[in-house]
Amino acid sequence: xxxxxxSLKIYKKHFVTIFIAAVIxxxxxxxxxxIPPLIFGMYVIVGRLVKREKAEFADIxxxxxxxxxxxxxxxxxxxxxxxxxxFLVIPGLALMVLFQYAIPIAISENKGTIYSLKxxxxxxxxxxxxxxxxxxxxxxxxxxxxxxxxxxxxxxxxTAICTYIAVxxxx
Length: 171
What we know:
The structure is a single chain. With 171 residues, this protein is mainly alpha-helical. It has nine helices and no strands. The chain has helices at residues 2-13, 15-28, 35-50, 67-87, 89-98, 102-109, 113-126, 128-147, 152-170. Helix 3 (35-50) packs across helix 4 (67-87). The longest helix has 21 residues, at 67-87. It is globular, with a radius of gyration of 15 Å.
């Protein structure tokens, strides 16, 4: 509850910056190669806001500072989740829950892909009930956002803030 409330306060206070960044990120994602760094860029912005630092919509491009890490994480997570979903749905869902904190960890600790994935998995297992509930709730929000045209521009940044705040609280 606290995580959601705090996220909403940050979201409302910095809505214009977050929304413009989401639009830029979406337009920039037309090119496949830019998708992971722009996702990281959104987390750079929300990470600064969570830490009460100044953030600008142009900070979306700071995700390119994590180009290699973002792509390695994107590939490793997508492939492992895909195989988990193909073989048995439950392992794929479990991997999604385990890795949900990896991007904020990579950014806040300035660490690489493997470290961030391992720490995310450890954080999740240490706080399993909370992590499962958070993942379910944020997934529902993002499904709704993805179902309504352009609503993901509103829901994705909010869920990114929630995830970042969760990492801050759990570590």
